[in-house]
Structure formats: structure tokens, C-alpha cells
Q: What sequence folds into this?
């Protein structure tokens, strides 16, 4: 295993904005200090976690989740995280409910999901996430399990490869890329490295937006597939509904339109009460979330960290369903 990358190698996106949104208004708390249970569902290199520990009280608890064993190893040697309020679990946030249940936690006050790939993952050639370096075409966030991107390309048929690149990469030349990949495989030289993949894609994608590498969308698509990122996101969002206490906050930072669309749709759906007009005397199904807003990085952050340019943060608050159910019908409509 590659040695853990120091925490300073990663610049946390929307650090203060995310922590402020997660904690909310603390003016009513004793001494302005919160002591709840908060989950950083995508620990990475711990930027958000450290900020939370600095802001929370002595009786608070911060539980971190990460599927990357290198991230978990980095946390174990970080002196700033030698804190009795902190714990970390090697799993994905899609498994949040059973993971927390095993730790004796059934309710939380906040959940933060910072989606995408961390800088140490991108900048480590052996991980295979970037076309900027030559390395094995792996792309797994959890290197202890699952199928690598190279393994997928070695077995999948042309139609499946094209669907993945089209649906997850939004690549208009998906069919051409898939044909080129399969042709290379059938010639006896399947793609096994990031450089080989970049070269094949460059030959199949004839035009691209200025400043964007032709392989960008294909790399994104394969990474999303290998890590089941969209399915994990759906599971994590549903877990928030099950775990958050009334008034608890959900904060999600996404980095591409597929993720943000899922988060936006989820919050919008759960922020509406459902009234069945076919049964006018039946109680409404009350809304379970209250949308609190959308935030993008400011110019200062973008100048300091260009990787933040595509970030979008959405915030929602868990509503009190029991109060809504016991309210008079006229008050709910």
C-alpha cells in the first residue's frame, strides 16, 4: 500500500461555509457551544472533521467515514485527530445506517458529504484516477475490494462500455470511444494504464471544449461506475432522513452535474408535503426536509484552489414530522 499522504496535501473546498451550514445557529446554546453527534461521511484528509472538532464542545462526537484505506491510515497518524471525541470507520457512506448502529448511534445532529475525489487520490499515479500521470488503470476508492476500471474494460462488451461513458461521463462521442477500446482489446492489447486509456480516447474524440483534456469525461464515467458513486449517494441521502434529528442538518458538496442533480431532486422532493386529492380527509404526508440554500465557492477560494471551480453545496434541515402529523389539517395546508 502507498504510504498515507499528509493532511496538508489536500485543500478542503468550502471549509468554513460547510461547517457553518452544518452547525447552524448556535446562539441559543450554552456558551455558544454545540455538543451533538456529527458525521463526516467523506473524511478524505480530514479538513472538515478538524474544523468541526475545533467548533464543538467537550461532550460532542464526530464520526468519520471513508472507503479509502489510505484516508483511514492517514487519520490514525494525525496528531490533531488524537481526540476522544473522534472516531473513523473504513466503509462507505452508503452503509451509514448499519455502520452507526454497530457503534451504538441511531440519531445524529448533522451529516456532511463532500463528494468526488480527494487531491491525494488524484495526485497518486498508482491510484489511476488522473490522466496527468501514467499508472495502473485502477480508480477504486476502496483498493481492498471490487473491480478496477481496467478489469471492467477487459470484460465489458462495446454496448455496455458506450452506455457507461455516455450516461456517467455525458460524453457525446461515447460510441466512438467504446469502439476504439474494444478494437484495441481484440487486437490483443487491452487498455491497462491511464496513459493507454488517454491515448485511445484522444484518437476517438475529435473535438473538445477549450482547455479540457479529451479523456476527462471518460475518466469521470469509469470512476463513477467502478465506485458505484451515484448509487452510494442515493443511499447516503436516504440514510440522512433516517438518522437526522429534527433540526439536524444535511450538507452535500458535489462536483459534477450528475451528483448535483440527484441532491437537488432529493431535497426538492423531500421538501414538499404530499396531499392525496383522492382521499381529501386523509392526513398529509408531511415534508421531511426544509431546503436552506445553495452555495458556490467565492472568487478568493477559486483563485487559491482551482479544483473548487465546479463545487456546489446544498443544505437542508430535517423537519419535525411528528409535530406536522399532530398539527390541525388546516395548519398543514
A:
Amino acid at each position: 500500500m502507498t504510504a498515507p499522504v499528509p493532511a496538508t496535501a489536500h485543500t478542503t473546498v468550502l471549509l468554513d461555509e460547510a461547517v457553518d451550514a452544518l452547525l447552524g445557529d448556535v446562539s441559543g446554546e450554552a456558551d455558544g457551544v454545540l455538543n451533538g453527534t456529527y458525521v463526516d461521511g467523506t473524511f478524505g484528509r480530514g479538513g472538515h472533521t478538524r474544523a468541526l472538532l475545533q467548533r464543538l464542545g467537550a461532550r460532542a462526537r464526530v464520526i468519520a467515514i471513508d472507503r479509502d484505506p489510505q484516508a483511514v491510515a492517514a487519520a490514525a497518524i494525525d496528531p490533531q485527530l488524537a481526540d476522544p471525541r473522534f472516531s473513523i470507520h473504513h466503509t462507505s457512506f452508503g452503509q451509514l445506517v448499519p455502520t452507526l448502529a454497530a457503534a451504538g448511534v441511531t440519531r445524529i445532529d448533522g451529516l456532511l458529504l463532500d463528494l468526488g475525489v480527494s487531491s491525494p487520490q488524484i495526485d497518486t499515479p498508482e491510484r489511476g484516477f488522473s490522466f496527468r500521470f501514467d499508472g495502473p488503470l485502477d480508480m477504486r476508492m476502496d483498493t481492498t475490494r471490487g473491480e478496477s476500471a481496467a478489469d471492467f474494460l477487459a470484460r465489458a462488451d462495446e454496448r455496455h462500455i458506450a452506455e457507461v461513458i455516455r450516461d456517467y461521463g455525458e460524453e457525446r462521442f461515447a460510441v466512438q470511444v467504446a469502439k476504439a477500446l474494444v478494437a484495441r482489446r481484440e487486437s490483443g492489447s487491452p487498455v491497462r494504464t491511464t496513459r493507454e486509456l488517454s491515448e485511445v480516447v484522444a484518437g476517438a474524440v475529435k473535438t473538445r471544449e477549450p482547455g479540457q483534456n479529451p479523456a476527462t469525461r471518460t475518466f469521470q464515467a469509469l470512476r463513477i461506475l467502478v465506485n458505484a458513486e451515484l448509487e452510494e449517494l442515493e443511499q447516503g441521502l436516504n440514510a440522512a432522513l433516517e438518522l437526522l434529528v429534527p433540526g439536524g442538518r444535511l450538507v452535500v458538496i458535489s462536483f459534477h452535474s450528475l451528483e448535483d442533480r440527484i441532491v437537488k431532486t432529493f431535497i426538492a422532493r423531500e421538501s414538499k408535503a404530499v396531499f392525496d386529492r383522492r382521499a381529501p380527509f386523509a392526513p398529509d404526508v408531511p415534508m421531511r426536509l426544509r431546503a436552506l440554500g445553495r452555495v458556490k465557492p467565492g472568487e478568493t477560494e477559486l483563485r487559491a484552489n482551482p479544483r473548487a471551480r465546479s463545487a456546489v453545496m446544498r443544505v437542508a434541515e430535517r423537519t419535525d414530522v411528528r409535530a406536522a402529523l399532530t398539527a390541525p389539517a388546516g395548519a398543514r395546508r
User: Anything to note?
Assistant: The chain has two domains: 7-119+229-332, 143-226. The longest strand covers residues 244-254. Residues 143-226 form a domain with the DNA polymerase; domain 1 fold (CATH 1.10.150.170). The chain has a mean pLDDT of 90.
